[in-house]
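quick one, 712 residues, struct below
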Amino acid sequence: MEEESPTESARRDIAKRVSRACLHCRQRKSRCDLDSNGTGKPPCQRCVRENRECVLGGSNRGGRRIRKNKIQNFTPATNTSPSKDSDASSPSNSENRQQSASYPGPVVFLPPNPPAPAQASVDEDDTSIGSVPRNPSDAWQCLTGIATHAPTEPREARSDSTSFPAYTNLRNSVVSEFSNPTTGIRAYRLVQSRSLDPETVWQLVSRYAENFHPYLPLVPRKYFARAALDAFASSEKHLLTAVLTIASKDLVDQPEIHEYCSKYMHELISGIAAGAECDVEAVEALLLLAEWEPQGLRPRIERVGRGEEDRAAWMHVGLALRSGYFIGMDRTSFRGDPFGDQEGEARRRLAWASCYVSDRLISVRIGRAFWSRGPGPMTGLVSQDFPSLQPAKEGDEDYSKIFQAMLDLTQLYGNVHEVLYSGMRTSNQMMLMGDYVKYVDDFRLAILRWKSLWGSLDCSPPMRATLQLSYEYLRLYTTAFAFQAAISQSLARPKTDAKGQREQLRSTFKNVASMQDSRFIYESVDAAKSYLTILVDLVDPEKHLHFMPLRFYLYGIYSAVFLYKARSFGMMVPSEEAKVQGLVVRTTEVLKQASAGTDDVGSRYARLLELLWKAKPTNPPTESQTNSDFPMQTALPNPVADPYMQFSPANDFSWLDLEAVGDYVSGDQISGGLLGLDAFQNSSDMYQAGQDRSQSWQPSTWMGDMSSNLLF
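---
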C-alpha cells in the first residue's frame, strides 16, 4: 500500500481527530489508525506495515505541557512510555498532586529531591525547542523543559540540612505527614481547620441544591449525592466553597458558619485574581457569587442599599470572563470535536454561555459597556446543547429550555443596550434627532415575539416568575429611553432658570396623550408597575424571593425609582399617584419579608425606597419622634405645592444609579457617602433639606461619568 502524503494525512486529521496515538505515529505527527484490526487497540496500521513495536502513548490533555528537548538522545519506545505509566500509577505522585491542588496550610519549603532518570516524566508536545516560539508563552514552555532536565545538586552535597538540625526535624515530620495525607472531605480546608464538620458541609450543599440551584444550575448534579462529597471537595474547591458561602448567607442563628466560608472564599478569589491556576469550576464559582453576592465578602454593610452589590457583581463577572477566556472556554461556542470528553465540553459550554448572560445583564443593570463584543454563542445554541440541564427523569424541571429562553432574552437585552444606551453622546444625538423611534418600535416587536414563543413555557411557578420579571424589566429598559428623549427635547428649548425649567417640564408631561412618544411613555410606566405587581402578587417572599438571584431584587428597586421620577414630572393624575405609591408600599413590605434580617439585601433596599418616597407629614413631628414614626402615606401631598418635590430638572440622580439615589435621599450628593443620613432621621429635617436642595441645586457626583449613564 502506498504511503499517504503529509497533506492528505493533515486533511484526514482535521476531518476526524482522535485522542489516542502510538508513540511512533505521534513522533511522525501523522494519524494513528488503531481501528485497522477492528479492536481499537495496538498495533496500528502503520506499525504493522513497517513491522514496528506499537506502544500506545499517554494523553496530553489537561495540565501544563512541558516541551521536549530533541537535542538529547531520547528513545520514546524504551524511555517515555514506562516513565509515564509508572508516574500515573504511583500512589505517592498522585497524593502529592492532590496535596498541591488543595488549599495550603502552613507553608514549608523542602529541599528538592533529585529526579531519578528512570522515573522522569516529561509530557510530550507537538512543538520542540527547535521550532520558533510564536509568543512569550511558547518561549517560557521551552525554558521550562530545559530546566526540568537540568542536573540537580545531590542532597548530600547540600549543607542546609546538616547545618540546621531543627529544620531537618521539621522536614522529616512534614514528609511523614504528607506520606499518608487525608483525602476527600477530610482534606478540605474548612473541615481540616475544624471550622466545619463533614455533616454540616453536606447539609449546606443539600440546602443549596434545594433552594438556590434551580435559578442558576451550574453545579453538576452528580455532586448533590452524599457519596460524591469527597470528590466534590477534592477536585472542585472553588465551586464547593461558593456553594457553602451562598447557602450559609442567611443563617442568622449561626453567623460564624458564613464568616468561615466567606473568609476562605475571599482567599480563593484573591488567588484567582493573582494568577493562580484554575479551571471551569472556578469560573462557575465566580458566576454564582455574582448572582447572589453574599454579604460576608464585603468589608462593610451600609444601613441603606447603595448599589454595592452591583459593583461586586461587576468585578466577579469580569474575573470569571477573563479566567474563562484564558483557559479557552470561548471555543465551546462552536460545536466541535464529537470524539473528545463530551461531558466536560458540555459543562464548559454551559459555563461560557452563563458568562455571556452574566456579562450582558450586569452591564444593563449599571449602565456600563460590555466587557467585549464577545463572548456570544455564535452558533445559535439551543437546549440540546446543554445536556446537563435536561431532565434526568420524567417529571423533572427542564432547565435546558428555561436556559435557552433566558439566552434568547439576554440577546435582546444586549441589542437594546448597544443600540440605545451605547453612550451619552450617541444617545443624546438620537434623542434630539428623533431617529430612536424606529429602533424602539423594532425592539418592542422582538420582545413580543419572545413572549409569544416562551411565555407559555411549561415550568414551575418560581421559574415562570423569573422569566416574567425579566420580560417586564426589558420592556421598561427599552421604552424608558423614549421617556428620557421627551425630557431632553423639552430641555433643548430656550433655557430659563431652574424654576422655569420645572414648569416647562410639568407643562410638557401634563398631557402625555398629546405627545409624539406617548405610546412609549405609557408602556414604560406600565412595565414598571407590572414588574412590581408580579413581585408582590405572584412571588412568595419567604419561599421563593428569599432565594432568588440578586438582580430580581434590584430590578424591583429600579422600577420603583423609575416610577418616582415619572411622578416627579407630573405625568400622573392624583388617583394614579396614590395607586403607585400603594404599590411601592407593598413592595417594601415584601422585600422586608424576604429578608433574613435588617442587614439583608431586601431590608436595606426597602429602607432606601421608604426614604425616597417619604411624604411630608401633616403635622410637624416632635423631637423624640423618629423616621420610623412616619411610614409612607397612601395619600400624597400636592406635588406642585410641596417644596420637597421641586428639585432640579435632571432630578439629581439616574434611575440606574443606586449610589446616586442613596446620595439623594441622604442629602450627601457631594461626598458620595452616608454622612448625612442621621440628619434625616426626623421627617421635618428631610422636608427642610428638600427646600434647601431645591433652591441651590448642584449636580451629583455620578454625573461625572458622561460616557455611559443617562440623566433620567
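The chain is about 55% helix and 0% strand.
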